[in-house]
Design a protein that fits this description.
165 residues; mainly alpha; Arc Repressor Mutant, subunit A; 3 domains
Length: 165
């Protein structure tokens, strides 16, 4: 802590640090999320900066660790595109997001296949309207056209196999 602060400023900083620890006690936050929470608490910028440095010193905030955990927890239900967008909304910089995606790569093919079977597994995919609707749904979620075609073809083949038995 900077020695130039007077007693009142030191007390405000102490309160900001305590508030930051209380916020982080319940769940991990990105640096941006923590900054925003402290600002909502009407702490002045100098106190917010000091509190951020304090918790960073103990590794209580680590944006890369946060991004990796976020991806690990959601990669079986989200496309890489969705994960990227959600992490950007949480205030993470693109380089951190990309590093996290390299460290914790989502399995797009299996995720898409599982989501596809869950949502469209019982529907008649030989019907062009159903096929088109399924295609648009997954394209909007950020999956690639080739991956979607492969998943739909695999599901249609699976349906035909179940009719043959």
């Amino acid at each position: 802590m900077n020695e130039e602060y007077d007693d009142l400023q030191k007390e405000i900083i102490r309160q900001a640090k305590a508030r930051a620890l209380k916020i982080l006690e319940f769940s991990d936050k990105t640096e941006k999320q923590l900054r925003d929470k402290l600002k909502e608490g009407e702490f002045p910028p100098f106190a917010v900066d000091e509190a951020i440095e304090y918790v960073r010193g103990f590794h209580y905030i680590d944006d890369l660790r946060y991004a990796e955990a976020y991806i690990r927890g959601r990669r079986s239900r989200k496309s890489t595109y969705e994960l990227r967008m959600e992490l950007r909304q949480k205030g993470l910089d693109p380089d951190t997001i990309e590093t996290a995606l390299v460290n914790e790569p989502p399995d797009e093919e299996n995720t898409l296949k599982e989501l596809f079977l869950k949502k469209y597994g019982r529907k008649d995919l030989s019907d062009p309207k159903t096929y088109e609707k399924a295609f648009r749904y997954f394209a909007a979620k950020g999956y690639g056209f080739d991956d979607i075609k492969k998943a739909i073809s695999s599901a249609v083949e699976g349906q035909e196999d179940s009719f043959d038995s």
